[in-house]
Each structure stands twice: as structure tokens, then as C-alpha cells.
């Protein structure tokens, strides 16, 4: 079926607010390694991986075999009313990897559900509906997670079950503190945090939730150490800290397994999803045992942590650890950042190149430094025309997001840099 016909059917039955890339959207019909092939037979190098979700790549034997092995048992589902060995083994591994003392794990189907759960835990534990969140953040598309999303383009409703106060820090490039040194930037943001607590809340705040690197916000991040300084203030008030690792987890940043570790912080809870399942629907929360057990009502999860998703996720985690993909992300990420910064020196339309590991953002600007969404859209389309899929985001839609599978090779990286150089010429 041609893409044009499929698009017409999509528009007839799917919500108009369901975003699609490109003027002529594509269907990915098959894939292997880091390459995908669309329904009309065109093959692309994938540098967005289903929004960082196909973290290991496509058609990975070890992961596919683990899923098939579970399918062969005939048990696709049992719900958490029964013991699930795969779920327990995966929880044990995540609890150990988290570094959180006496950690316990609850599995969900997505990052949105994971963040909703974390908010429920924190508000219940603190008996407060007050939450601190960062400007330019994104945490999901459900009722409470939309409320803590500090990006107007993704805030579908102003209604909220919680009271949110907004803190500076996550998006440095357009911050009022942009010109500050790292130390002065951190101090200014900490001063802002303290003032926010003292002037916009009643003091008994439930939690702060933050992405170590803002994903939808355009792969933006503060200087290392900001969240350590934030945590010191939060501890003074007894406020819990939740790290949203939905995009930064599993070694993608290269230097650490979890994004928050760059700040020398052990959070009270972390949420995760995306790359864990390498395409399977799975997310969750890992938290201090006392925090996780704060819920005093009965609960289950019908689909969260089901036998198939946890079989695949366990194989995914084992694969990335056995093959040290964190080290590969560090090595190739350094080359990716370097290559893009060389490109930025030649093209003033690139205002900023930032990120860590294989999580890199390129912000496009106009002559006066204003956001240039048209340039980003041009690069998105021109990259596709040359066989490269990339992402787009940022508060103003002017950031190209690059997050290829962590199994990326050096040759594939150089191929992508070459295509991006040609695409930027057209911007």
C-alpha cells in the first residue's frame, strides 16, 4: 500500500492532534541493525530510533530469541496477581543498577504511566499536592504529567490534579542566566529554587521532578552539579526528588548509566521507559522501599511488567551491559558532538550544539539569534531525502534531535555527519 493512501486512511480515523513527521509521512515496514526500510522500499539510517526507544537497534537475535522463548510457553499475559519470574529478575537487576538504597520496582506500560505513578507515591508520602517542575520540561500526556510539562506546545490542558511551581535550570541556551559561568548559573538557579519554594508554595512540597537532559525540550541540560545543589535545598524542606530517566537512562549519555549520576545525586525515585524494552511497551519506577510502600490501598497492574515485555527488557539490559554500549555511546557521542560543532563553525544558522553521548541536539537560529523552526524543518526533510531519519523538538520547534541506537558504528556515524552537512547547506 502506498504511503499516500495509508495517510488518507490515517487522517480519516486517527485524531488530528496525533503528530506525524514530514509532509509525506512514511511507514517503517522492516528493519535491521540501525537501518529501516519504508513500505515503498526506501532504506534509511535511523538516528532517532523511535524516539530513543529502539536503543539496541533492530532485529537483535538475543532480544528476539528471548521474546520467542516466552511466546513459545503460550503465556503472553497473567497480570501481577500471579508471580512473573521475568518481572522479578528484571526488577532485581534494575534495583541493583539504580544505586537507590533498599530499592523496589513497579512496572508500567510507558514513561507517562511511570511519571504518574511517581507523582502518586510522592504526593501520598508527603500528603501534599504541590510539585516543583522545570521550565521547558516534558513528562507525558496524562492528566498529572501534562500538568508538570513546562512546554506549551505539549500542554493539552490547563486543568490539573496538582499544584505546580516552575523552576529555572533545564534550558540554558535561552535562559536569563545564559551568559553566567557554570558556578554562577548554578547559584542563580538555586536562588530561584529557594525563592520559588518560599513565595509560591506553603513549604510542604511533595517533590521536584526533573529530566537530567530535557528530551522533547530539545536535549537541553544544565551544568553538571546543578541537581546536586538543588537536592541540598530540597533536603532542607524534606522535599523528595524524582529523576525522569525515560530518555537518559540505560547508558545513553555515555559517561553514566543514569543521567542524574552526572550530578552526584541519588534520587528518591527514578522513572524509566523507552530504551528498556528496545521497542516493547514497558516503563516503571524504581524508588526507596519505604517510598514505594507508601501506598496503603490494593493495586495491581494488568499489563505492566507482563511476561513478554519483561523477557525482552531483561534481554535488552543484559545485551547493553554485555556489549558495554555505554562506552560506545561515550566514544561515538564525542565524535558526533565534535563533527556537529565543526559544522556549526561554518554555518551561523546553527546556534547551539549540545548533549551527551548519543543524545545530541542542534538548535537552529535566525540572524538575530531568534528561534528558526523553518531551518530545523528543512534539515529534517533534507536528511530524509538523503536517507537519514532524525528527530525534531525544542520549545520553538527549532531543534534537531539525534539519538541513534547505541549499537551505532563509526562508519554509520560518519555517513550521518556527511548527510547532515548536506542538509544544513539547504537550511
From TrEMBL:
InterPro entries: Aminotrans_3, PyrdxlP-dep_Trfase, PyrdxlP-dep_Trfase_major, PyrdxlP-dep_Trfase_small. GO terms for molecular function: transaminase activity. Coiled coil: none annotated. Its cofactor is pyridoxal 5'-phosphate. Pfam families: Aminotran_3. CDD domains: OAT_like (cd00610). Its EC number is 2.6.1.44. Keywords: Aminotransferase, Pyridoxal phosphate, Transferase. It comes from the Bacteria. Homotetramer. Belongs to the class-III pyridoxal-phosphate-dependent aminotransferase family. This is alanine--glyoxylate transaminase. It comes from Lentzea cavernae.
Amino acid at each position: 500500500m502506498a504511503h499516500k493512501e495509508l495517510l488518507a486512511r490515517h487522517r480519516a480515523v486517527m485524531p488530528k492532534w496525533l503528530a506525524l513527521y514530514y509532509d509525506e509521512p512514511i511507514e517503517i515496514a522492516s528493519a535491521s541493525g540501525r537501518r529501516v526500510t519504508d513500505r515503498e522500499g526506501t532504506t534509511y539510517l535511523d538516528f532517532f530510533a523511535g524516539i530513543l526507544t529502539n536503543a539496541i537497534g533492530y532485529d537483535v537475535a538475543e532480544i528476539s530469541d528471548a521474546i520467542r522463548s516466552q511466546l513459545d510457553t503460550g503465556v503472553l499475559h497473567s497480570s501481577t496477581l500471579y508471580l512473573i519470574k521475568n518481572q522479578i529478575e528484571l526488577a532485581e537487576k534494575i534495583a541493583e543498577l539504580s544505586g537507590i538504597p533498599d530499592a523496589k520496582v513497579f512496572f508500567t506500560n510507558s514513561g507517562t504511566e511511570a511519571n504518574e505513578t511517581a507523582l502518586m507515591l510522592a504526593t501520598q508520602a508527603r500528603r501534599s499536592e504541590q510539585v516543583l517542575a522545570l521550565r521547558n520540561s516534558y513528562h507525558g500526556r496524562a492528566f498529572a504529567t501534562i500538568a508538570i510539562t513546562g512546554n506549551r506546545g505539549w500542554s493539552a490542558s490547563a486543568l490539573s490534579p496538582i499544584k505546580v511551581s516552575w523552576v529555572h535550570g533545564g534550558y540554558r541556551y535561552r535562559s536569563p542566566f545564559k551568559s553566567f559561568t557554570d558556578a554562577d548559573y548554578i547559584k542563580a538557579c538555586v536562588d530561584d529554587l529557594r525563592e520559588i519554594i518560599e513565595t509560591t508554595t506553603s513549604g510542604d512540597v511533595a517533590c521536584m521532578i526533573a529530566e537530567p537532559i530535557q528530551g522533547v525540550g530539545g536535549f537541553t541540560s544544565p551544568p553538571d552539579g546543578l541537581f546536586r545543589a538543588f537536592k541540598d535545598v530540597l533536603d532542607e524542606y524534606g522535599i523528595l526528588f524524582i529523576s525522569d530517566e525515560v530518555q537518559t537512562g540505560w547508558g545513553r549519555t555515555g559517561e553514566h548509566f543514569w543521567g542524574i549520576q552526572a550530578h552526584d545525586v541519588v534520587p528518591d525515585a527514578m522513572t524509566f521507559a523507552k530504551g528498556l524494552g528496545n521497542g516493547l511497551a514497558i516503563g516503571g519506577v524504581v524508588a526507596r522501599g519505604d517510598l514505594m510502600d507508601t501506598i496503603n490501598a490494593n493495586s495491581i497492574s494488568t499489563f505492566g511488567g507482563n511476561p513478554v515485555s519483561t523477557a525482552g527488557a531483561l534481554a535488552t539490559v543484559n545485551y547493553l551491559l554485555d556489549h558495554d554500549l555505554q562506552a560506545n555511546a561515550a566514544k561515538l557521542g564525542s565524535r558526533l558532538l565534535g563533527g556537529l560543532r565543526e559544522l556549526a563553525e561554518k554555518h551561523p544558522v546553527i546556534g547551539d550544539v549540545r548533549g551527551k553521548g548519543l543524545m545530541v541536539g542542534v538548535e537552529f537560529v535566525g540572524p538575530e539569534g531568534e528561534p528558526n523552526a523553518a531551518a530545523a524543518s528543512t534539515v529534517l526533510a533534507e536528511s530524509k531525502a538523503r536517507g537519514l531519519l532524525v528527530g525534531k523538538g525544542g520549545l520553538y520547534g527549532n531543534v534537531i534531535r539525534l539519538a541513534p541506537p547505541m549499537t551505532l558504528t563509526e562508519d554509520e556515524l560518519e555517513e550521518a555527519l556527511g548527510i547532515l552537512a548536506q542538509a544544513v547547506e539547504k537550511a
